[in-house]
């Protein structure tokens, strides 16, 4: 009853998402065993890059977990996980530099990041409501509920699409910063790219899944209106 031709593409996109997550873990584990020539830890790389960009007031903190690394825009803090903070590996310095890239975006009021921050309160609300509206609309056969659910879900999809340039830009900044400051060699550049590109692919897959789901809901809504 709920099967739609776009479901086939959604299944493929889910497969891509699983593959991307596997690739992130695989690449991180692979390059976690390859030490960077700089001899610096993820925390040291982050601190040096922040200072070299005038962000002396942005602290670098240790956070528990694996791949839980992030930049907190509210507290203006770079947080690095167990496997990154004290590690001298290619994987660790790549992730650390990526988070610094977000801190620099914040300091420069990078357009896509500013938009993402402004969208967050709205998306935080709509993401929790949209599934219930859509489910209720399908179960009750209510086009009004489905239409409202589509509007709310559209905000979620827009947020994911805006996230893409933010993540790709942070990775690009990370690699350029490490090269310009001499923290990685030309031979290490390819390894850094593999770590960063794998992580970015997970965001692409997630956005693709949501976009296809949105198209499916719109198609069902349009068909219901015609009938």
TrEMBL record:
Q: Which domain of life is it from?
A: Bacteria
Report any Pfam family annotated for this entry.
Zn_peptidase_2
Say yes or no: keyword Signal present.
Answer: no
- Keywords from the named record: Membrane, Transmembrane, Transmembrane helix
| Designated name of the protein | Zinc metallopeptidase
InterPro entries per the UniProt record, alphabetical: Zn_peptidase_2 (IPR007395)
Q: TM spans, by residue? A: 6-22, 122-140, 146-168, 200-221
């Amino acid at each position: 009853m709920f099967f739609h031709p776009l479901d086939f593409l959604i299944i493929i996109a889910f497969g891509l998402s699983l593959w991307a997550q596997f690739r992130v873990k695989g690449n991180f584990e692979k390059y976690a065993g390859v030490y960077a020539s700089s001899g610096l830890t993820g925390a040291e790389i982050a601190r040096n890059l922040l200072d070299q960009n005038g962000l002396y007031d942005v602290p670098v903190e240790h956070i528990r977990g694996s791949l839980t690394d992030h930049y907190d825009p509210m507290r203006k803090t770079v947080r690095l996980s167990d496997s990154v903070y004290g590690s001298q590996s290619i994987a660790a310095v790549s992730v650390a530099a990526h988070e610094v890239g977000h801190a620099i975006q914040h300091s420069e009021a990078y357009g896509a990041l500013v938009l993402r921050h402004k969208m967050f309160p709205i998306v935080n609300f709509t993401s929790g409501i949209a599934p219930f509206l859509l489910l209720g609309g399908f179960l009750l056969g209510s086009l009004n509920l489905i239409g409202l659910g589509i509007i709310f879900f559209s905000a979620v999809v827009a947020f994911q699409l805006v996230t893409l340039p933010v993540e790709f830009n942070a990775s690009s900044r990370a690699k350029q910063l490490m090269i310009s400051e001499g923290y990685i060699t030309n031979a290490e550049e390819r390894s850094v790219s593999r770590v960063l590109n794998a992580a970015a692919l997970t965001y692409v897959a997630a956005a693709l899944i949501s976009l296809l789901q949105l198209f499916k809901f719109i198609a069902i809504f349009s068909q219901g209106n015609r009938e």
